Amino acid sequence: IWGENKTRLGLVYTGRSGRNFSYIFNGTGTFGGSILADQASPDNPGPNLFYVPSGLTDSLVTGDPAFLASLDSTISGDSCLSKYRGGIIPRNACNTGWVNQINMHFSQEVEVVPGHKVEFILDIENLGNLINSNWGRLDAIFQPSNVPLADVAISGDGSQYVLSPSGSVTATAANPNIARIPSAYRIQFGIRYKF
Question: b/e for 103-137, b at 16 or more Cβ within 10 A?
Answer without folding.
Answer: bbeebbbeeeeeeebebeeebbbbbbbbeeeebbb
